[in-house]
Write a structure and sequence with these properties.
There is one protein chain. Helix 5 runs antiparallel to helix 6, helix 21 packs antiparallel against helix 22 and helix 25 runs antiparallel to helix 26. With 801 residues, this protein is mainly alpha-helical. The chain has a five-stranded mixed beta sheet with strand order 2-1-3-5-4. The protein folds into three domains: 356 residues, no CATH class; 224 residues, no CATH class; 113 residues, Serine Threonine Protein Phosphatase 5, Tetratricopeptide repeat, CATH 1.25.40.10. The protein contains 35 helices and five strands. The longest helix has 38 residues. A hairpin with a 3-residue loop joins strand 4 and strand 5.
Length: 801
Amino acid sequence: MIDDKQIKSHEGNLKKLLAIVFLICVFLLSLIKIEDTDTWTHLSLGKLVFNLKALPEKEPFNFPGLDRPFHDPEWFFDVVFYIAYMFFNLYGVILLKATIITTAFYVLLKDSLIPHKNYISSIIVLILILFMVRHRFVERPDIVLMLFLSFTIFSLNAFIYENKKYIYLLPLIQILWANMHPSIVVMPIPFIAVLSGGILQGLIRKRYGQFFPDTPSNGQLKTIAVILLISVITSLLNPYFTYQFVFPFKLANVDWWRDEIMELQSPTWKNFKSPYLLTAALIISFLINIRNFSIIRLFLVAPFVYLSFSAIRFIFLLGLVGGPLIVKNIGSLTLQGKTKKLTEFFLIFLVILLTTLTLLDFEPFYLPDKIFGFGINYDFSPEGALQYLDKKNITGRIFNTFEWGGYITWRDFPRRSAYVDGRGNLSYNLLNKLDLARARADVLDELHKKYSFEVAILNYPKTQDFFSTVAAANVDAALSSRDWALVYWDDLSLVYLKRGGKFKGVIEQDEYRYVKPANGPYAIRVHDKEYLSGLISDLNRNIKETGSSTGYAFLGFLYNERGLYNEAVELFSRVKDSPHGGNLFNAYQGLAFAYGKLGDYDKAVKYYKKALKINEEAPALYNIGIIYLQMGDEKKGAEYFERALELNKNLLSIYPKLISIYQKFNEQDKLEKITKMYEAAKIQNAGVEHFQKGLKAWLEQKYEIAIEEYKKSIEENSSNPAPYSNLGFIYFDIGFADKAYGYQKKALDIDPGFANAHYGLALVYTKWRDREGAKKHWEEYLRIEPKGYYSRKAKEELDKL
C-alpha cells in the first residue's frame, strides 16, 4: 500500500521536475547569438571604465561630442559584462545573459506560486510570458531590470503572505540596480502599490467588512515603508545621484528619440498584439477573482499597462508584472487527482516541444533575429563594410547609421571612430542632422567641413518604399551627389567615400557608377546600351564580391525588364531575405512576374501569395488579379483588384478592368461606385509625373527645372496643393518671399489642412518678422504633423518666438 506521505512525495517530485524542465528551456531559449547593436556600446564602455578604474570626464568615442561630459548611467552593468568577456570571450557574455534571464524566470515562478502553489497555472502562464518577452533577451541592462523588478515584487509578496525576510535584501539590490540602469525609477512602484493599496484595503475592511486576503498588517506596512525609504537612500549611491531617477523622463521628453527610435514608438495592434492580449487576460483574471479582488494587484499592474502602451520597449515589463498576477487571480482554480498528474506530464512534454520547435525555427514560435547558439549574428552589424575598409586600409572618422556606432567602436577604436552610437550622446542639433544629411547635400557638407570625415557607412533607408513602382527622387540624394562615391554595398550596408580626399585611388578603382541600391530595384530602368552595360557590370561585380541577395534581386528585375524570364527565375531563386527587408518580397514578385510571362500561372499565383504574406501592398494585389484574369477567373481577379484599391485608390490601371468585370456580371451598384472613383482618381493622378520630376530636380538644386515641372503639374491638375506648396518653398529658397507666400496661400485655398503649406507660410512670416503670423502657422503645422524632423524644427521656431 502506498501511503499519503509517499503520494505527496511523488507529487512533489513531479512538480520539481516540471519547474526544472521549464527553467532549462528558458536557459536554452536565452542562448542567442548577439544581434542587438547596443551590446557593443556596453562592452566598449565596460572596457573603458575597467581599464581606467574610473569614469572619464569627457566623451571618448563619438567625434562630434568629444567636448561633452561622459555619460554612462549603466556603467556597472557594462563592467560586469566586459569582465565576462575578458574571461570567456563572447561565450561568457552570452552565458551571463542566459543565467540572468533564467534567474529572473526562477523568481517569477516563485512569485507565481504565492499563495496557491499552483504549478500548472504558473507554468502555463509563464510559458506564454516567456514567448511574449523573448524579443528583449539581449545583452542590455533590460535583463537586470527583469531580475531586480521581479525580485522586488516577489520579496514583498513573500513578506506579506509568508512573512519571509527577502525584503531585507532590497536596499542592497537597489544599489546594484541604480548603478546598472536608470530603470531604477520604477523601483518604488511595487512599494507604493503595496502601501497605498494595503492602507485602502484596510480602511475598506474596517468600514465595510470586505475581506482582502493580501492586506498587510500594520506592522508589515511599517516595515515596508522603512525598507522603501532605505532603498531610495541606497539607490542614490551612484555616480549620478538623483539624475538616475530624472534621466528616463528627460529622455522621454526629447522629440528626436520618440520620433526616430523604433522601440520608443507606441505599439499598435498590427505590429505588437501582446500588450492588448495581456491586458485583456489581466482584466478577465480580475473578473474571475472578483470575490477576492485585490486593490494592491490593481495598483501594481496599472502603471505597467500604461508603460506597455506608451512604447514598444516597455511591453516586456507588463509580461513580467502581469504574468504572476494572472496566476494569483486564477490560482484557486486547481485540478485534482489523475487529471492533475496527467496535466503536469503534458506540460513537461509541451514545454520541451515548444522549446524544440523554437530552436528549430518553426513558426510561429521562433523570432527571425534570435539565432540559437554562441557568437555574432552579423545580420545586424556592418561587418562586411568594415572588412572592406580593412582591405583598403581606410581608417579615420566615419559618418554612420545611429545603431552601428557601438560596433564600430568595439571593433576598431581608436583607428576608426564613429559619429554616433546607441547612447545618442550628441547635441539635439547634431542628432537632428543625422538623417537629414542623407537627403540634403548642404547639411552633409556642413557636417563634413566641421568634422572632416571622408567615409560614410549607412544602412538602407528605413523610410524608403522599396516596393513602389514609381521611381522617385534619390533616397540618398546627398550621398549620391557628385561629391560622394559609392564604393561598397551588400545586403546590410552602403559605403560612400568623399571625392577629392585621400581615398581618391580607392574611388577610381571601386566606384559603382550606375547602380544606386538605396533607391531599390524599381528605380532600375533600361536606358541606352552604355548605361545597360554599366549597370549589368556593377551588379555582377557586386554579386561576385559580396554574394549579395540584393544584387541578385536587382539583376533579376533587370532581366525581367529585358524579357529574359528564364534567366530572371534563376537569379531570383538565389535570393535570401536581408536585414533591411524587401529582398525576399522583391524576389517573390519577380518570380511571379516571370512565371506569369512564361505562362505558368499556378507558380505565378503561388509566388504572388508568398509576397503578399510578407507585405500586402497594392501593386502585388493588382498583379495577382491580372494573373487570375489570364486564368479566366474574373471573379477572383476582381477580389484582388478591390483589395488593391482599398490600399491605393490612385492605381488607374485597375479601374477599366473592374468596370469591364462589373458590366459583364451586371453589378450595377458596384459599377456606379467604381466609375465615380475612377473619375476622381484620374483628376488626382494628373500631373504626377511632372511632380516627381520637379521633386527630383528640387532635391538636386536644379531650381529652374523644378519650377518648370511643378508648373506643368499644376496645368494638368490644378486641384493638387502639393506642387503649389513646393513652388513656394523653392521661391523662398531663392529669395522671393512674396512669390513663396502667394503659392503657399494657393495651396491652403485648395486644402486648408495641407501641413506643408502651413510650414511654408510660417517660414515667410518669420522672415517678415511677423511673430503672430509665424506662431499661428507653426502651431497649425504641429497640430497636423506632430512628429518628424520638420515638426521638431517647428517646435524649435516656436520656442524662439
